[in-house]
Amino acid sequence: MIRRVLLIARQEFLKYVSRRGFIFSLLLMPAIFSLSIGVPILLGPHPKTNVVVVVDRTGLYAAAIETAVARENAQAELTALAAYATGHADMAALGRADPALAAMLREPDRLTEIKMFQAHGGSRHALEALSPFLRSHVPFIRPMSHIAVAPTPPDLTQANGAEVTALARTYLAGRREARLAGTPQIVSTIIVIPKGFAADGAIPAQYFSADTAAQGDADFVRRVLADALSLHELQQFLPPHSRTASLEADANLQVIDPTQAAGARLSAAERLGQFVPVGLAVLLFVVCFFNSALLLQSVLEEKTTRMIEVLASCASPTEIMTGKLLGVCATALLTVAVWIGALFVIGSFFSQSTVSFVIASLGQVATFETLPLILLYFLCGILIYSAIFLGIGAVTNSLPDAQALLGPASLIIVLPMLFLRVIIANPNGTFATVVSWIPIYTPFFMLVRLPFHPPATQLWLTALCVVATTLLLLRQIGQLFARNLLSTTSSAGFLTKWMSRRSPRQSP
Predict the structure, then answer these.
(1) In which band, very low, low, confident or very high, does the pLDDT at 464 lie, cut at 50, 70 and 90?
(2) DSSP H/E element including 78
(3) Does residue 252 lie within any of the structural domains?
(4) Domain count across the chain
(5) Which residues pair with 207 in a beta bridge?
(6) 436 Cβ contact partners less than 8 Å away, ≥ 6 residues apart
(7) 187 and 276: one domain?
(8) Which domain holds residue 197?
(9) Is the pLDDT higher at 184 or at 396?
(10) Which among 216, 247, 278 is the end of a domain?
(11) What pLDDT, in 10s, does the model give residues 250-307?
């Protein structure tokens, strides 16, 4: 029996993977992913530094803008270095040898760590300290500064009124340049802070820019000026020796996952790892539709060409159904493997550090405890959806009949995608818990909820539920498949015959 099942599974697998449509669809997803990344990079605006000149008539706010810009660039650089270290360094050994640097890389968004990063020389010093703990020799690519402040040219400093607007037009058109670190640079933005600029807003600051990308920094400058206005007002009530410490205080807030070790903080890889099963759930949905459609088409072709009769003479209906399901499962797993492999290859072409970061995130979620559950939910999901499509193929004899049932079945199966955002927003809420107990949706929803630590009782009871549902559905579909295995009549469609049996007979 096992030999016949494996032979049928092998035949089904080879039949699926040798179809031109399957090969085309297998390559289509990586092609779409490549285009979605490559086209914006090639055709979109290339990143460049927004060179800013500040004309401060008050003498109070230029330093605040320069400090905020330096801190913004340092945060971007530290965030990139943290992602690089997560993928390429032994963070545990680094934490024991250099706790201060490890703290910077764990919390690159924290003000205290950014200031310490700046005070210790930025990425150059951090890379020197990090180099003994690197596991690979992939170089760190320092991100381009998003915004930079250039010294104010003398002509802009001396200009007044309408002269500023005329000079701003000249600088923004590239006919005059400012010098940044001794190098001439085209100015993208000119900020003019006039005398009388204050918290009452009566006299506004001016933001000159003809670059659409640079205009996006207007909100950043507005926030910096608002903070600077507030600090300037508050400084009037503080003694000089306490102004800096009081106005640049940083709240030490630890983000702790109570299911992890005491005091453990969520790293960037762990935060990304929480959403890896969401991608697996969506992948499950796509693969099931893709491969189950092949299964449905295969059954209809065999019934139409009477090839099913040849199979029935050599194997039982149960063996035929089992072989077909094993074949479609193998095809689905091949599809997943090829797509994931292609995505990593394409991702490494665009960014090697990103791939390493994603691998570290996968390691965070695919642990010894969760990996069996991920595989169980994934495989049971494939079997459940494949069995539904196999049942549709068993009770119909033509493609139009199958399409009449395929529409409602597809709407039922696609329903979880409508609730995906709600589940992610509150993965352990009442709604998420209730829908996780709907058997045909359990694999999808539990994959989404798995990294958010649902109660252990829910994990194991839903696992038992989905296994029982899979076995029961396979048994029922097996009986349906056996009853309709050799049914090839096509004089009337399945729905037509079903409706005719229920329509009232007309009196002669």
Answers:
(1) very high
(2) helix 62-88
(3) no
(4) 2
(5) 191
(6) 442, 445, 446, 449, 454, 458, 462
(7) no
(8) 50-247
(9) 184
(10) 247
(11) 555 554 445 444 444 445 545 555 566 677 777 777 777 777 777 777 777 777 777 7
Whether 72 shows a pLDDT value over 60: the answer reads yes
SS3 366: coil
Scan for tokens 């009124």, then name that residue.
161
- For the chain, how far is it from start to end, CA to CA, in angstroms? 55
Same domain, 197 and 298: no
DSSP H helical ranges for 396-452: 399-418, 420-425, 430-435, 442-449
Which residues sit opposite 193 in a β-bridge? 56
The angle formed by the CA atoms of residues 377, 293 and 303, to the nearest 5 degrees, is 120
Q: What is the pLDDT of residue 507?
A: 44
Beta carbons of 142 and 49 less than 8 angstroms apart: no
Residue 180: strand pairing partners: 183
Higher pLDDT, 315 or 264: 315
The rounded distance, in Å, linking the Cα atoms of 157 and 78 is: 34
For the chain, how big is the Rg over CA atoms in Å? 32
Record the tokens describing residue 136, joined without a space. 């690979």
Do the domain assignments include residue 295?
A: yes
Residue 210 — φ and ψ, nearest 5°?
Answer: -105, 0
| Percentages (nearest 5) of helix, strand, coil residues in the chain | 70, 5, 25
Q: Could you give the 3-state DSSP secondary structure of residue 487?
A: coil
Amino acid at 77: E
| Element (DSSP H or E) covering residue 303 | helix 276-304
CA nearest to 131, candidates 93, 74, 164, 178: 93
Stretch 306-317: mean pLDDT: 75
Q: What per-residue confidence (pLDDT) applies to 11?
A: 84
